Amino acid sequence: MSSRHASWVAALALAASPLSSHAASDAVASEMSFLDDIPVVLSAARLVQPLKDAPGAVTVIDRAMIRASGARDVAELLAWVPGFQTGRKNGSTALTTYHGLSDDAPRRMLVRVDGRSAYSPYFISGIEWAKLSVDIDDIERIEVFRGSNAAAYGSNAFLGVVNIITRPAADTPRYRVRFTEGENGIQERVLSTRQQFGDLTARLTVGRQGDNGLAPIDDTYRNQRVDARIDWQLTPDQQVELHLGFVDNRARTGVTTDVSDPARSVDNYTGFGQIRWHKQLGLNDEIKATYFHQEERAVDAFFVPLGGGLGVQVNYGNRALRDDIEVEHLIHPRGDLRLAWGVGLREDRVNSTQIFNTDDNIVVRQARLFANTEWQASPRWTLNAGAMLEKTNVTGLRLSPRFAANFHATPNTTLRAAVSRAYRNLTPFERQADVRFYESSTGMLIRQSFQPSPGLRPERITTREIGIRQEWQNGRSNIDLRLFDERVEDMLRRITSPSNANPVPVLNTNGETPHYTNGGYARIRGAELTGLYRPTHDTWIGGHYASLDINSNDEFADRSAPNEQFSVFAAAQIHPGWHMSLTHHFVGSMQWYTQEKNRLKAYRQTNLRLAHRFSIRGVRGEIAVGVQHWTDAFADYLPSLTRPTQAYASLRLEY
């Protein structure tokens, strides 16, 4: 850590010290939540289950952990989860994947926010983190199901699921503000308010954040967002939730010295509205209905000069709309049997003339039928079975089943085994991309950078796993081991073939153009070990270790995840009102789907945070200082793009 970072953090810590006279240990007592009870997961099989009964390995990151981490977005938190690879393509674009197999557009994992799919399989990435409107302080918990979970959530949950669950509106402060300032242009402003109107409680959060991105490129970004949640208790047994959000992301991209990809500003807009209705039909009988509408739009146009007054007008602008409705029924027909089943419909409409070489919408319609059941066969055996039946207008009918058995050798020791089959329906880009560039004045086809890939089959994965979980302190402390064998078939590979354009573009090498084929396979084997010791709500030490081996006929897939990685994270109250947290990550050598010259060296990163919590006349507050990437600058996407060490300070006030 450089002397300027150390002196800056020390000065800010001393500046906070006068507030210590107002510190009160009960200032954080209200933070106690579900940790007083046996920890449960809400989304592994669409049933509320103790972790030891879940049909697979689940990592839970709760509100206290999120706050102590100092993370500015959810993508940063996934470094705490074994088997995940994270990186930054540029300042505003975070990359996250589980068990590799990813280029700069990860699309084999699902993210859900309060029951809404945040998967955007349109142009750039399956998960575009910058488009999430939810503020990190409004998150109650994050549940990460490690392994395929298509049986519960469909084809996008091919390798795993990240479920983000926000706090009920009534469980948030009446007023909350957060300010963050730091090196590398770090800046954040958040304002949140909660209001009560009879049986209706509403929360509104607005915020703006940004920084100067990665060295040495021009990728400064500013992200503005609005997020609202309204909880309306219609009757004692009936509730409605309304969720609304909007994000305006403005970022610099491109390369100053590259006329074909010039430095420029790109605007991305995303908005959604969602309504969820809950009805308690009986003591163990509940029905839910969810509908959401989402719109995404990007503005990205520029001119490429060719000389002699000629040039190419490029317009990557696009628009995507999604409508989704789902009905789910949770029933408890017997004391030892529970079932969640339902149906859903979705329609996606995508438009981009540059990407698809047509002004028409690309329309994908999906219908789904699912069921997941838990049977307590005996005091020692818990059996989970489930399946998702999906049909789209482009891929036909596919069934994704799963079966899991958990054996409770003792009340605190569980052995589990699971097997599943899943399919991933392909994105519009993978199937129909036809990216052409024409000279503006003559209309001559200059280049085709991608051509359609008709007749592709969905990717298929078969997963077998065994594990053991040991718990103590009512489950708050635990050790979990997962051993897995994942076989991916019909995996997409990128190859080149003669262009489908006529005449052949003059700038295409040998008249060939890239496209996708189903010729790939990958076998992923390894182990993931996690441990957590948590004697109190605000004190813990935990970590994980992951060993991974990928064998594939795709040279990029073989190296798309490190053979080894580990993390350690700890937090403690070092003095009444004073809290410290530390995280350290090691990631072995790997590369995203890029050339060998872009292979990343193994790297380490350490984050440190010191916080002082206080209470003055009913106002609860926290002032924190920290350092991200305390170690030397490192690269996590391309060797030429480094993440700088950066110190920051933040202030939270709640009333």
TrEMBL record:
<keyword id="KW-0813">Transport</keyword>
<dbReference type="Pfam" id="PF00593">
    <property type="entry name" value="TonB_dep_Rec_b-barrel"/>
</dbReference>
<keyword id="KW-0798">TonB box</keyword>
<dbReference type="InterPro" id="IPR000531">
    <property type="entry name" value="Beta-barrel_TonB"/>
</dbReference>
<feature type="signal peptide">
    <location>
        <begin position="1"/>
        <end position="23"/>
    </location>
</feature>
<dbReference type="GO" id="GO:0044718">
    <property type="term" value="P:siderophore transmembrane transport"/>
</dbReference>
<dbReference type="GO" id="GO:0015344">
    <property type="term" value="F:siderophore uptake transmembrane transporter activity"/>
</dbReference>
<keyword id="KW-0732">Signal</keyword>
<keyword id="KW-0998">Cell outer membrane</keyword>
<protein>
    <recommendedName>
        <fullName>TonB-dependent receptor</fullName>
    </recommendedName>
</protein>
<comment type="similarity">
    <text>Belongs to the TonB-dependent receptor family.</text>
</comment>
<dbReference type="Pfam" id="PF07715">
    <property type="entry name" value="Plug"/>
</dbReference>
<keyword id="KW-0812">Transmembrane</keyword>
<dbReference type="GO" id="GO:0009279">
    <property type="term" value="C:cell outer membrane"/>
</dbReference>
<dbReference type="InterPro" id="IPR039426">
    <property type="entry name" value="TonB-dep_rcpt-like"/>
</dbReference>
<feature type="domain" description="TonB-dependent receptor plug">
    <location>
        <begin position="51"/>
        <end position="161"/>
    </location>
</feature>
<feature type="domain" description="TonB-dependent receptor-like beta-barrel">
    <location>
        <begin position="215"/>
        <end position="618"/>
    </location>
</feature>
<dbReference type="InterPro" id="IPR012910">
    <property type="entry name" value="Plug_dom"/>
</dbReference>
<keyword id="KW-0472">Membrane</keyword>
<dbReference type="InterPro" id="IPR036942">
    <property type="entry name" value="Beta-barrel_TonB_sf"/>
</dbReference>
<keyword id="KW-0675">Receptor</keyword>
<dbReference type="InterPro" id="IPR037066">
    <property type="entry name" value="Plug_dom_sf"/>
</dbReference>
<keyword id="KW-1134">Transmembrane beta strand</keyword>
